[in-house]
Amino acid sequence: MLGLKLRELRESNGLVQRQIAAQLEVDTAYISKVENEEKPISKIHISKLAQIFKIPEKELLKMWLADKIYELIIDEENPLDVLKSVQRQIVQNTINQDNKKMAI
Questions:
Q1: pTM for this entry
Q2: For the chain, how big is the Rg over CA atoms in Å?
Q3: Are 32 and 60 in a shared domain?
Q4: Mean pLDDT by 10 residues, the chain (104 residues)
Q5: Do 6 and 45 fall into the same domain?
Q6: What angle do CA 66, 68, 73 make, to 5 degrees?
Q7: Which of 2, 23, 42, 100 could form a disulfide with 63 if both were Cys (CB 3.0 to 4.6 A apart)?
Q8: Are residues 82 and 67 in the same domain?
Q9: Segments in the chain forming alpha helices (H)
């Protein structure tokens, strides 16, 4: 998901892979593999990519994390059930945190 978005952003900004690679101080082959979803982008590059493409870093971080979660659960039995279970845990944790704040 993120790799395809990065390609879209690069192309819409009229940049070539070599230019992105130079700004990130990586080789062009790495950028090609990222864009082709063959290799994940390292989190350390997210901030610089957000600056290059003039988009909120949070947007790229969200996609980066979604890719990580996807890769972690996709081959598991019932990945959607796993994701729903995590969602319930997050909701419950958020409610508990809100209740603690209100008690203070």
A1: 0.81
A2: 18
A3: yes
A4: 96 98 98 97 97 97 96 94 94 85 75
A5: yes
A6: 95
A7: 2
A8: no
A9: 2-12, 17-24, 28-35, 46-53, 57-73, 79-103
63's CB contacts (< 8 A; 6+ apart) are: 1, 2, 5
Residues 31 and 57 in one domain: yes
CB 82 within 8 A of CB 76: yes
What token pair was written down for 59? Answer: 């947007």
Among 60, 58, 54, 61, which Cα is nearest to 13's? Answer: 54
Q: Same domain, yes or no, for 10 and 26?
A: yes
9: left (phi over 0), alpha (psi -120 to 50) or beta: alpha
Phi, psi at residue 15, to the nearest 5°?
Answer: -105, 155
Distances (CA, A) of 25 to 7, 90, 92: 17, 37, 42
- What is d(CA 103, CA 8) in angstroms, rounded to the nearest whole number? 47
The candidate with the shortest Cα–Cα distance to 50, out of 62, 32, 40, 38, is: 62
Q: Give the residue numbers spanning the domain of 12.
A: 2-73
